[in-house]
Amino acid sequence: MSPALRILAPGLGLTVQDLGRFGALHLGVPPSGALDDYAHRVANWLVGNPTACATLEMTVSGPRIECLMTADIAVTGAAMGLRLNGSSRRQWASLRVRPGDVLELGLAENGCRGYLALTGGIAVPEVMGSRSTCLAGGLGGLEGRLLARGDLLPAGRGALLTVPRRLPWTPIYPQHHLLRAIPGPHDHLFAGALDRFFETTFAVSPRSDRMGLRLSGPAVERDAGAPSGIVSEPVVPGTVQVPGDGQPILLLREQTIGGYACIATVLSADLWRIGQVKPGDTVRFVRVDLETGWRLAAQWQDFLATAERLLAAGR
Q1: What pLDDT is recorded for position 172?
Q2: Which helix (H) or strand (E) holds 35?
Q3: How far is CA 147 from CA 121, 122, 312, 313, in A?
């Protein structure tokens, strides 16, 4: 398979990601995958790819990349100053590139992560059914690691677009994030602190990574007599753990079990938002009940299906 892209400079945290690796939690293998799966999906739809194709996930600082084949590309997610051969180009739109073209992306000016899709997807080998990079486990992506200068990436098979595509709107990511969440599964250990938890604005720590966002604010206190920890049990992306110091950790996509009590769980419809939260931003959790959560999840899936149809129709 011929290479499609050459990494000239990787920026920060450049990895290959798709929708994730599922069915292996019992083996201690986390899902991984794009942290902002909405931006990932739209990037693929803009170049005519199926949703599951792998993209490049760029964190905070974008890469410099040489194109080695004629293809359509699209960059979505954080505003990173996309340039083609030195000329500014629009994100959230398809762009035809040819051999020798150079793409450059800079610092994220709005949001935290960008996504680059290519005709046919990034065709690194699948590991356990996914091309996503799991850095902690050293698997998936390209040798299970961050991409580096000189790396060559192949593309899968795909057809060039007959007409360019663009998203009719440009998403803007805030610095203060409201995340809808359902109390639990261990909210009974925090009965006296639950209201205060949902009223608190937390700051995002620089120690955050793909495993989780570390939050700082007034300590979330357990009820008198509540245990400081629990027997380790499975966790999911969006779980909000409370360790002994009372400073919450919002888990992302690189963890399988945890031994801290979980005060709340972010809705699946809001998980993509977490991928654009950066250190220095603030987060507040908005309480919803289970019935509302199911309704919002269904609405989000309907929205995604509509967006995919519109882009496929060239609108």
Answers
A1: 87
A2: none
A3: 16, 13, 31, 34
Q: Give yes or no for residue 68 having a pLDDT over 70.
A: yes
21/33 Cα distance (integer angstroms): 7
What's the token pair of residue 160?
Answer: 């060039």
Residue for token pair 């993209």: 55
225 - beta bridge partners? none
- Model confidence over 108-157: pLDDT tens digits? 999 999 999 999 999 999 999 999 999 989 999 999 999 999 999 999 99
Give residue 135's region: left, alpha or beta (phi > 0; psi -120 to 50).
Answer: alpha
Mean pLDDT of the chain: 94
Is residue 25 scored above 90 in pLDDT? no
Spell out the residues 6+ positions from residue 108 whose beta carbon is closer than 8 angstroms to its own: 60, 61, 62, 78, 79, 80, 114, 278
Token pair in block for residue 308: 């995919």
SS3 200: coil
Other C-beta atoms closer than 10 Å to the C-beta of 306 total: 10
User: Distance between CA atoms of 276 and 189, rounded to whole angstroms?
Assistant: 30
**Model pTM score:** 0.95
Q: State how far the alpha carbon of 96 is from the alpha carbons of 69, 73, 118, in Å.
A: 10, 6, 10
